[in-house]
Each structure stands twice: as structure tokens, then as C-alpha cells.
Design a protein that fits this description.
Layout: H1 5-9, E1 25-26, E2 37-40, H2 52-57, E3 62-65, E4 76-78, H3 86-97, E5 106-111, H4 116-131, E6 141-143, E7 147-149, E8 154-156, H5 164-176, E9 181-185, H6 188-192, E10 201-206, H7 214-217, H8 220-228, E11 234-243, H9 247-260, E12 266-269, E13 279-284, E14 289-293, E15 303-307, H10 312-324, H11 330-338, E16 348-350, E17 357-361, H12 366-376, E18 384-388, H13 397-406, E19 411-414, H14 424-433, E20 441-443, H15 447-457, E21 463-467, E22 474-477, E23 480-483, H16 486-495
Parallel strand pairs: 1-2, 2-3, 3-4, 5-9, 5-10, 6-9, 10-11, 11-12, 17-21, 18-19, 18-21, 19-20
Antiparallel strand pairs: 6-7, 7-8, 13-14, 14-15, 16-17, 22-23
Helix pairs in contact: 3-5, 4-10, 4-11, 12-13, 13-14, 15-16
Length: 502
């Protein structure tokens, strides 16, 4: 059904541009269809408004932007600062154009440096259990780093958080397909760029704020500020959930509590939490974890929960999902955690009959690397082998910190991750510079050869951690994407006739 800016934004000060009906909206001129709205949005290096001529040629009916376009032959709605933020306006247009889908679903948004994908995976598992009585098979939506699921079709994701128009279109498909709940990852980039504008969240989760993407944000404080923007996406009755074990997250929660004055709207969780989100009696074994969530005197009462995922950090992830869904049937929460399927590339086990354990993980930050090592170190009876790299054209400052974290393993192989346009040798030197003991690491640039070396060095009772790329299926070198999946490579090497690991 056609929509106008006057209707979408509920305002009468947009002149002729406010009265022009449009049937679609996009910020990409190449996607414009006849009768659609083109949003010329300002980027870091390029302004979308520069492409208004292409949009007009493709049949755009109206333009939404933040600067006058005097030569444009179609109506232009100009959002100067006094009038409002143009990205927020575009988000609201997308929300309205797609039938206000986030108001028709229970939508849980998750941000944080680490844990977003796993928390969303857990949320979807709980959603499915809650819907099991009504749907066979039960359905729920998920949009994140690994895949996008609209309840009918699951496809690999291109971005952690898609463009604003695509996000609302996905939610609309979830509604059309019969989903009643959905989980969405919200990266700090997406929040900073207002890609989630117009979203109404029932629950907003902040897992942690640690070092990553400083090449984009500039400082850890800026990362925290970007992640805190998830608060602005909460629906009127939405709840903010965060890990108070993390000082920066706790600060965000305290600030929101002071602003909102309704304690029920903000809930903390963690090992240091004293309230209903308190984690205690955690047991982390070789095949899964158990923990008690809650505290006597709080509602809901304490519950013992289990999940087939390794490590203390996954206990935190499970607690985040459970606290975000306290309005759901407790049995669905418990079953959703206990029955969750393995998360691709997140401590994913590779089993080919070898006498040692092999795990592939996405850890690519200092904090993430320490977390996965801490998770498996107590369980490893032999030596812990680690393979890790670092991405090119990204935050160089974290590389030495990653090298230092790698020192927690017994044996380390530094190798290429996604070098992109950088010299792989320079990246590897940066990593190695942080390692405390040159005698306990080697550098092998070729990732396949490095994986083979790490696996060949392992002996019975050892554990091998292949970190950095997780679920990814390509390696980017000098602008070219080459097929490469750590999990496939591990299986090929372990199954090869000449493998010396046994």
C-alpha cells in the first residue's frame, strides 16, 4: 500500500515532498524502483545524495536527505538538524512501510563485543521451544553474523546487521511466515550508523564492551557509547539487560536506571550480580555446563539450568538469554538452553576419530581469545595448542594484546587470518611481538599449512584450538576472496592418509 512521508513521520512540515505517495524505500540508488523513495544518507566518505540523478532515472518519486538538491526535478524532503535526524526518519519510514513488524513480534536485540551470535542462537532455541505447541516444526526469526532465518528460509548472512531497509523487510517476512519472536544481532557499527533505526525492541541485551573495531570507533569509550545506543531502540515496555561483571556495561545500566526510574526496566546478570540475574554454582565440564540462575527472595526463583556448550563465557551467554526472556515459560527457557544445537564456528568440535580434541572458534579479539582459552584450559589433560591470526586493515593495536593472550596456551602457531590489503608478514610480526616466550610459538603464514602443523603436533589428551575465522568460508587476501573453511580444512587434514597425529 502506498505511503507518504506525512503519514510515515506524522508531520506536516515537509511541503510537497510530504504528500508524494511511494511504494518502496531504499538508501541505494541502484535499488530504486519506479514510484519509490530514495534516501540520500551521509556516509563516512560518500554522501548518498550525490546519486540522486541515478535514483531519478530509475523512477524515484521522492527524495529524503539532509541537504538541499536544487536541481533535483522531484520533491525533496530535507532534514536539517533542527528538523530531525534523517537516518532516524528513514528508519521510521522502513518500519511503517513494512507494516510495523517489530511491534508484531517479540524482538530481542543483542549487542556486545563478544557473545552476540551465541546469545541470539540461544534465544532462537528458546523461542522455538516456546512455540513448539503451536508449530511443527517450531519457527522463530534470527538475523546475525552466521545466518538469517525468517522462519521459512535460512541463508548465510553477509553482515552482522543488515541495512535498515533489509532489517525491516526481514522482520516483515518473519511476521508473514508466522513467527512470533525473533533475535537480532546489533553490531556497534550498525548502532552508530543507525541501521536499526525504527526498530522496537522487547528486550535489549548488552553482553560486554571490550576492545575491537578501534580502527572505526577510535576508543573503547566510543565503542561503549555506540553499544549504549541500543537503549534508544527499546519499545515503551521494553527491558534492558546487561552483564554487570563488565564495568562499562554496568555503567550503561546505571545510567539507564537513573534516567528511567523504573527498576523493572533494567536487569543485570552475572557472577557479581546480587539480584534475579545472579549466576552461581557454575560447573563447566568437557561436554557442557550447568549453573544456577537467580537469588532467593527475587522473582523468578533460582533455577538450575544446563546447556551443551563449554565454558564460563557461555554460562554468561545463557544467563543473558534467560534473563531477556523472563516473561516466557520457564520450561521453554530451560529446554531451549538444554537442547540448543551447536553454534557454527563457536567452539565447534571437529571429530574425525583422532585421539585429541579439535575446536574451531571465531575468537578474534584479546578478550575473546582469553575467554576461549580459559574455557578449555581446565579441561585439557595434555597440552593446549592454539592457532590464531589477526585481520588486516583493522585495529592494529589489538594484535600485540592478542599475542599476549595467546601466551596462555602451551604451543602457538601464528598464521594469516584475513590479511586483506596488508602485508601478512607485518600482521604476524605484530602478533608475535606480544607473546611472552618466543620458544613457545612459530609463525607459518599459509593458513592450511599452519593448521596441518598444529594438528600434527598434537598428541593423545591434547586439545587444539583453531581461532579467528570460526564459521567463515572464505579468506580475503589482497581484495580477493578465496574459499577457505577452517572446519573443512581440519577434516581434510585429519582424514588424509599421511596424517601423523595418531
Amino acid at each position: 500500500m502506498p505511503l507518504t512521508l506525512r503519514e510515515a513521520l506524522n508531520r506536516d512540515d515537509l511541503g510537497e515532498a510530504g504528500t508524494v505517495p511511494f511504494t518502496a524505500a531504499t538508501e541505494f540508488s541502484g535499488r530504486v524502483t519506479p514510484g519509490g523513495l530514495f534516501a540520500g544518507l551521509r556516509g563516512r566518505d560518500v554522501h548518498g545524495a550525490w546519486f540522486w540523478e541515478d535514483a531519478v532515472e530509475r523512477g524515484a518519486a521522492v527524495v529524503l536527505t539532509d541537504e538541499p538538491l536544487s536541481e533535483c526535478p522531484i520533491p525533496v524532503a530535507v532534514f536539517t538538524p533542527w528538523r530531525g535526524d534523517v537516518r532516524q526518519a528513514f528508519g521510521e519510514v522502513c518500519h511503517q512501510l513494512h507494516g510495523r513488524p517489530s511491534e508484531r513480534l517479540f524482538v530481542a536485540g543483542v549487542t556486545g563485543t563478544n557473545g552476540k551470535s551465541t546469545v541470539c542462537w540461544l534465544l532462537r532455541s528458546i523461542f522455538r521451544e516456546a512455540m513448539r505447541v503451536k508449530y511443527k516444526p517450531p519457527i522463530a526469526g534470527l538475523c546475525g553474523t552466521i545466518e538469517t532465518d525468517d522462519g521459512r528460509e535460512i541463508v548465510p548472512s553477509q553482515l552482522t546487521t543488515p541495512a535498515c531497509e533489509d532489517l525491516h523487510a526481514w522482520l516483515a517476512r518473519c511476521v508473514a511466515n508466522g513467527c512470533e519472536a525473533a533475535a537480532v544481532e546489533l553490531s556497534s557499527h550498525a548502532l552508530d550508523q543507525d541501521r536499526a533505526a525504527g526498530l522496537r525492541l522487547s528486550s535489549a541485551v548488552i553482553t560486554n564492551v571490550t576492545r575491537d573495531h578501534l580502527d572505526y570507533h577510535g576508543s573503547l569509550e566510543s565503542v561503549a557509547e555506540a553499544k549504549a545506543e541500543i537503549v534508544d531502540l527499546l519499545a515503551d515496555d521494553g527491558r534492558l539487560i546487561g552483564c554487570i561483571d563488565d564495568p562499562l556495561v554496568e555503567r550503561i545500566l546505571l545510567k539507564q536506571s537513573a534516567r528511567d526510574q523504573r527498576a523493572t526496566k533494567v536487569t543485570g546478570f552475572g557472577f557479581d550480580c546480587a539480584g534475579s540475574g545472579r549466576i552461581s554454582a557454575a560447573g563447566c565440564g568437557p561436554v557442557g555446563s550447568t549453573f544456577v540462575l537467580g537469588n532467593a527472595g527475587f522473582q523468578p526463583p533460582p533455577r538450575r539450568l544446563s546447556l551443551p556448550l563449554l565454558g564460563r563465557f557461555n554460562v554468561l551467554n545463557a544467563a543473558a538469554a534467560a534473563v531477556a526472556l523472563t516473561s516466557f515459560d520457564p520450561r521453554a527457557v530451560a529446554l531451549g538452553l538444554a537442547k540448543v544445537s551447536p553454534v557454527p564456528g563457536r567452539l565447534e568440535e571437529i571429530e574425525c576419530g583422532q585421539p585429541f580434541r579439535v575446536l574451531v572458534d571465531y575468537a578474534h579479539t584479546p578478550d575473546g581469545l582469553r575467554a576461549v582459552i580459559d574455557a578449555v584450559r581446565p579441561l585439557c589433560e595434555g597440552r593446549l595448542h592454539l592457532l590464531v591470526g589477526a585481520g588486516g586493515d583493522r585495529d592494529r593495536g589489538k594484535r600485540a594484546e592478542m599475542g599476549a593472550a595467546a601466551g596462555l596456551a602451551d604451543c602457538v602457531v601464528f598464521t594469516s587470518d584475513n590479511p586483506r590489503s596488508e602485508d601478512p608478514h607485518a600482521i604476524l610480526r605484530d602478533l608475535a611481538a606480544g607473546h611472552p616466550d618466543p620458544a613457545r610459538y612459530e609463525i607459518i603464514e599459509d593458513r592450511r599449512a599452519a593448521i596441518a602443523a598444529a594438528l600434527s603436533a598434537a598428541r593423545p589428551r591434547d586439545w587444539v584450538l583453531i581461532c579467528g575465522k570460526g564459521h567463515e568460508t572464505t579468506q580475503e587476501v589482497a581484495g580477493v576472496y578465496h574459499p577457505f573453511d577452517d572446519r573443512v580444512v581440519c577434516r581434510e587434514i585429519l582424514a588424509s592418509p599421511g596424517f601423523a597425529g595418531d
